[in-house]
Write a structure and sequence with these properties.
GO terms for molecular function: glycerol dehydrogenase (NAD+) activity. Its EC number is 1.1.1.6. By secondary structure, the chain is an alpha/beta fold. It contains 13 helices and 8 strands. Strands 1-8-5-4-2-3 form a 6-stranded parallel sheet. The chain has a two-stranded antiparallel ribbon with strand order 6-7.
């Protein structure tokens, strides 16, 4: 009998102004953490975080993250953590910073505290990291025995970030139910090595419902730096619901195609994770033989929040069919998650679906 597995973070804290509580919350887990963030994020958050740690008598060390969640960077920062005798790792920033923090903490066998400064991905809550080469090409996943010990996300910080990141998180989250449903149907494995649970599917359904119900108004409020109940709901959907849903429900083609896009060169690498997942989700829907009504519903949603639904918007209008086949080849790598949709679909069929999404979107009124 197949076993079902469900994992989750130990604690999740969300709200406007909660960054000032980081020291108090960290104090329950650590006295000497290593803090990592990129220079831009640190310039925005350092004053609040430093004051918060000082008020809680926490002796922390800061080290700049270089921007890529690569094995080389993980190894470098792990050595820094060991040399500083850090007893925990605090990651502050976007998905790659947070994935790197999780990897460092795993190498130290220490607690990890996750502080997202955007709601741009569902990376914060998961027990895995997406790993890239130094040049930004997807190389695989790292899996851990546990999820983060603490996630603390300040809604005011999130809405002060570029609105494109908020929209990207909505697009990443919109893939959650599409992929979990495919994994359930195919009897595929989730990201923690078990079958999708009823709870994970219910969470994925609530995630999508929240986005379709509140997404437009949340997007418009967040674009003005406003924290409203709709914004709070979408931050939770982007960060917690999507994270729990994808990890325990499973990934399928949408994220595998995102990973396939990393095989290409050019301006596509300037797009966010969520932007590439947007197109991957639409490709999965085409491959699933979704109805016209369903496709147009998703395309309309993505267009309303400025996400790419055409090859031109993906900077791929001049990409050859052969290169799109290469996307399909990387997407269907046995180490990725495409088989949760099907193990019968060929790279050529994926290339055709990529082209079909473009035509459907262009004709969508």
């Amino acid at each position: 009998m197949a076993r079902m597995i469900f994992q989750s973070p130990s604690k999740y804290v969300q709200g406007a102004g909660v960054l000032k509580d980081l020291g108090e919350e960290t104090n329950k887990l650590s006295k000497k953490p290593l803090v990592i963030a990129d220079d831009m994020v640190w310039s925005i958050t350092s004053e609040t975080i430093t004051n918060s740690f000082e008020n809680s008598n926490i002796d922390f060390e800061y080290e700049a993250f270089n921007g890529e969640a690569s094995e080389k960077e993980i190894d470098r920062l792990s050595e820094v953590a060991k040399s500083k005798e850090a007893d925990a790792v605090v990651g502050i920033g976007g998905g790659k910073t947070l994935d790197t923090a999780k990897a460092i903490a795993d190498s130290l066998e220490a607690p990890v505290i996750i502080v997202p400064t955007t709601a741009s991905t569902d990376a914060p809550s998961s027990s895995l990291s997406v790993i890239y080469s130094e040049s930004g090409e997807f190389t695989g996943y790292k899996f851990y025995d546990k999820n983060p010990d603490l996630i603390i996300i300040d809604s005011q910080v999130v809405v002060n970030a570029p609105i494109k990141l908020f929209a990207s998180g909505m697009s990443d989250a919109m893939a959650t139910l599409v992929e979990a449903r495919a994994a359930l149907k195919s009897h595929g494995e989730n990201m923690v090595g078990g079958q999708p649970t009823l709870a994970s599917i219910a969470i994925a359904e609530k995630c999508e419902e929240t986005l379709f119900t509140y997404g437009d108004s949340a997007y418009r409020a967040a674009s003005k730096g406003l924290v409203t109940p709709h914004v709070e709901a979408v931050i939770e959907a982007n960060t917690l619901l999507s994270g729990l849903g994808f990890e325990n429900g499973g990934l399928a083609a949408a994220h595998a195609i995102h990973n396939g896009f990393t095989s290409l060169s050019g301006e596509i690498h300037n797009l966010s994770h969520g932007e590439k997942v947007t197109y991957g989700t639409l490709v999965q829907l085409v491959l699933e033989n979704a109805s016209d009504e369903t496709l147009h519903k998703y395309i309309d949603f993505y267009k309303s929040i400025g996400m790419p639904t055409t090859l031109k918007e993906m900077h791929l209008e001049n990409t050859s069919f052969e290169d799109l086949v290469k996307v399909g080849e990387l997407a269907t790598d046995p180490g990725d998650t495409f088989s949760n949709l099907s193990d019968k679909i060929t790279p050529e069929e994926i290339a055709n679906a990529i082209l079909a999404v473009n035509e459907i979107s262009i004709s969508n009124k």
